[in-house]
Design brief:
Elements: H1 4-12, H2 22-34, E1 40-44, H3 50-57, E2 61-66, H4 69-78, E3 83-86, E4 99-105, H5 113-123, E5 124-140, E6 145-149, H6 152-159, E7 162-174, E8 180-191
Parallel strand pairs: 1-2, 1-4, 2-3, 4-5
Antiparallel strand pairs: 5-6, 5-8, 7-8
Bound molecules: S-adenosylmethionine.
Length: 192
């Protein structure tokens, strides 16, 4: 589990809102290689709505959820045509088999994956596609402490029956709120 002090430090310095839409564009390209990209998309941990707005610009009917009310208020202010909801990835406030696409980046580590990953599977339609960008390990480089760790096998077991269409392991170092590194597992696939 991601340490509470680390969560609080991150929330005080939400550096991810400075990023662009590259990851959303990348997910959209992968989706397009496998099916026509239309219907409902859920962005879990949508923060200020930047990626949700990108998917909406592509004609998808987008919903964004985030546990942080301030982030959701900002998303509402910026993108009035998208429905954003304060919500917890561990209890996703949508019915079973509702979404054609689920997109979740840099967020599962903030949750209890034993609850959030099955929830993603639950709200995704059969034949629906997911893009999960999962920080499998986060290290505080100043203290050499591992702040979070999760194995791919754990995620796959929790996801249920899926067909993986692509996967990649990536690394990133972020300087704030302290120097930390991410080892990221990027999974894209279909629910059977
Ligand atoms: C590191 S940010 C990533 C934001 C965005 N997905 C991105 O990649 O730029 C993690 C986000 O997850 C949200 N979050 C944390 N715990 C959550 C939970 N249990 N359910 C939904 N969102 C959560 C945080 O409020 C924050 O906006």
């Amino acid at each position: 589990m991601f340490r509470e002090e680390v969560k609080q430090a991150m929330l005080a310095h939400p550096h991810w809102i400075e990023r662009g839409t590259e990851l959303a564009m990348h997910a959209y390209n992968i989706f397009s290689q496998h099916k026509s990209v239309s219907g409902n998309l859920l962005d879990i941990g949508c923060a200020n709505g930047r990626d949700a707005a990108f998917f909406s610009s592509k004609g998808l009917k987008v919903r964004g959820i985030d546990i942080n009310r301030d982030a959701i208020n900002e998303a509402h202010r910026k993108y009035k045509n998208i429905k954003f909801v304060v919500g917890n990835a561990e209890f996703i406030p949508f019915e079973d088999n509702y979404f054609d696409f689920v997109y979740c980046t840099n967020t599962i580590m903030w949750t209890d994956e034993n609850k959030s990953v099955p929830e993603i599977f639950r709200v995704l339609k059969s034949q629906g596609m997911f893009f999960l960008h999962i920080d499998t390990q986060v290290d505080n480089l100043d203290t050499n402490e591992v702040e979070h760790k999760i194995l791919k096998e754990t995620i796959m077991n929790l996801l249920g029956e899926v067909i993986l269409t692509s996967e990649a392991t990536l690394e990133r170092i972020d300087p704030v709120p302290f120097k930390h590194s991410h080892i990221i597992l990027e999974l894209t696939g279909f629910k059977k």
